[in-house]
Amino acid sequence: MENKKNIAYSILELAFISSGTTVAETYKNSLDLAQKAEAMDYSRFWLAEHHNMISIASSATSVLIGYIAGGTKTIKVGSGGIMLPNHSSLIVAEQFGTLGTLYPNRIDLGLGRAPGTDQITAQAIRSDRMQAANNFPGEVAQIQEYFDAENSHAPVRAIVAEGVNVPLYILGSSTDSAHLAAKLGLPYVFASHFATGQLFEALDIYRREFQPSVHLDKPYTIAGVNVIAADTDAEAEENFTSLLRMFIGVLTGKREHLQPPMPMPDDLMMLQHNPALRDMLKYSFVGRKEAVAKEIARFVEQTGVDELMVVTNIHGHEDRVKSYRIVAEIMKDLNAAPVA
């Protein structure tokens, strides 16, 4: 009896600053998590770019990628993603070419189009970012040129990037990016840990329109899910209150550090039924190992994704490590299970 295809499993890290924790401690915890994830056979440890958010410390994403890669040995480290319209394509190529040289075959460059912040901050980052956002396909093509070993005769070069192996990934939360990833023959990553509505449509577009390239001969899909796993359902649900409050803060504009868990209060229980919140949390799997395993298996079967990108925002560092350990056990069991 043949085995199912192996589903890779990875981590998306936002370097959330828990209340009572400093930025420096947050970075140390991120590195500790990456080192433990490496031992648990996670494929990648990606860091997301966000700006002007009191609770997120991954704003200087490429710098943090270097810190994590320098403290680990084998796990792939990358961006989930670099918000390309915020940056010069040349500078991004130079940064990731440098990283790819320092940590050979371990650096991923995930590229997104959103600002990763509010509009006022986006304007402060780059005044012409809307022009760059509208030319996202052109900006991606420019990055590819800078990494091309044959770019040596161009008038503008990212010399440290030429010929360096840094795979590109296209990130998306709508169908627009699916068309681009398919056209370029690049792997496609969907942010279904918060943008759930167009997941299946985007995956279908990408697979249907995919054109093989020198980078990839067949479609490769990654999708994000929130997971809060613990020894018991009650413990997981209590830890989930921190994530709930964070999402409510996003919707209401009340930003704060990741708050400690609490027994599920009635008001949070009721707020879970808010349509906007319910939609954002559609792919949030909370509970003991057996319950989470069923949810993950169903998600993988329904989507047919090649890789799961797990997001676990829990206030306590050790509780977060435990949740990721449970997910690693689930994925190993899932990959070992024979085809029915």
From TrEMBL:
<feature type="domain" description="Luciferase-like">
    <location>
        <begin position="16"/>
        <end position="306"/>
    </location>
</feature>
<protein>
    <recommendedName>
        <fullName>Luciferase-like monooxygenase</fullName>
    </recommendedName>
</protein>
<dbReference type="GO" id="GO:0005829">
    <property type="term" value="C:cytosol"/>
</dbReference>
<dbReference type="InterPro" id="IPR011251">
    <property type="entry name" value="Luciferase-like_dom"/>
</dbReference>
<dbReference type="InterPro" id="IPR050766">
    <property type="entry name" value="Bact_Lucif_Oxidored"/>
</dbReference>
<dbReference type="InterPro" id="IPR019949">
    <property type="entry name" value="CmoO-like"/>
</dbReference>
<comment type="similarity">
    <text>To bacterial alkanal monooxygenase alpha and beta chains.</text>
</comment>
<dbReference type="GO" id="GO:0016705">
    <property type="term" value="F:oxidoreductase activity, acting on paired donors, with incorporation or reduction of molecular oxygen"/>
</dbReference>
<dbReference type="InterPro" id="IPR036661">
    <property type="entry name" value="Luciferase-like_sf"/>
</dbReference>
<dbReference type="Pfam" id="PF00296">
    <property type="entry name" value="Bac_luciferase"/>
</dbReference>
